[in-house]
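A quick word before the example. In earlier lectures we treated sequence and structure as two separate objects. From today on, think of them as two lines of the same record. Here is Aldehyde dehydrogenase family protein written that way.
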Amino acid sequence: MRAYGHWIDGAWRTPDKGHYAVVNPATEQVVGEAPEATEAEVAEAVTAARAAQGGWSLTGPRQRAAVLDRVADLLVQHAAELVPLIQAETGATLRVASAVQLPSAVDRFRRAARGALEPDVLPLPPWPVRASPLAPGGLIGAAAVRRPVGVVACITSYNFPLANLAGKVAPALAMGNTVVAKPAPQDPLCCLELGPLFREAGCPDGVFNVVTGSGTGAGELLVSQSGVDMVSFTGSTSVGRKIAQTAGRSMKRTLLELGGKGAAIVLGDADEKVLRSAIKAVGSVWSFHSGQICTAPTRVLVQRPLYERVVTGLKDYAESLTMGSPVENSTDIGPLISADQRKRVEAYIEGARVQGARIVTGGVRPPLEPGFYVAPTLITEVTPEMAVAREEIFGPVVVALPFEDEDQAVHIANGTSYGLYDYIFSSDTARAWALAGRLHSGNVGINTLQRHPETPFGGCKGSGVGRDGGSFGLHAYSELQSVVWPS
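And the structure line, produced from the sequence above:
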């Protein structure tokens, strides 16, 4: 167990308010101690980032790319230490931690390194203009140039702490910004470990800083800092709204990736192959990080003739999964992040039961101690108005609803305040393509949960503002400046 400091201006900063315990959700034992941030420490981190921003923005793209590539190399070199730490903090299974949590962070740093070398000037064709009281006429040349925003506050969620932070920090730095990161309170230690890696990679002091805190205070202080130019946040919609309000007072740029209530629509034309794919995809709500993922297809909408088959298939899938210690290779389902989150998920399940829904499988606390476990739960006889069908639960809970035709499916799918990621399963991909256009969702997967790393990622409605991913992510962390001259 280690007591960390804040990472500010290229060095550890001993916290004035001391530390708080970070708890392993599988063992309920303390993993390490993270620093509690004060207003002065948050301001110190922002000041360091502000002081470093001018120099970093003038650094050549190849030098910025080299730093980001070197960070990726160091993450790979330190995988043997980082993967167990990620597991201990998050409760992620070995499969998720080793195949997703760390590799995704590495990939994002490498992609941003390539992105630093992408052209940042878009030349525009010369344009003949008439003389005016403003200036003489003539042929006018112009270009649109991407410039850094400035100091970016990167505030991340607890489900994928390192990968999520890499997805913000890497493109922000590639575009010449500097960063103050504020990881989620539950699992900030692997993010703090990035500090020394950046220094080893040759990153100038102050370019990357990390502050932490046990509650919302550190994030609120960071968002309200006048020296912050942009806030990039991943987390709940309720917190995202508060950040937008605070940022709006000083016109800070925001990139908000918020909650989701993904619908997996299974059309009646689905053949056996597509049906198996759909069941496995929806089953990932249970087996992939215990449903703690905003893009999860937590609602399965099935055209009536196939409804019972899908429900039976999902029940069998859920009951075939192994729940237990995340460090065991055989474990499919690990714990939730905390006792509070388990209590929240259990309250949703009990609320559905009280409202008359049927718990097909799960719904009771498994006999696993210690650890914050919730059994994979499938709920039917649900109406679209019930909380379990409308609100983000962030746990291993799936609700199944039948529909008669596409109009009803669209009505149900669009009937929540979210619009992050939906899915369509059909043997007619042209039909699925047309249906995707009717979904108020930032992303739609057809017959797959697989992602394309270059697509713009973000949500509609209560699921957020803005897009990241690939070159779109680079653009999100830049300002467009128009430069005009006489030819």
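Notice the following. The radius of gyration is 24 Å. We will return to this example when we discuss secondary structure assignment.
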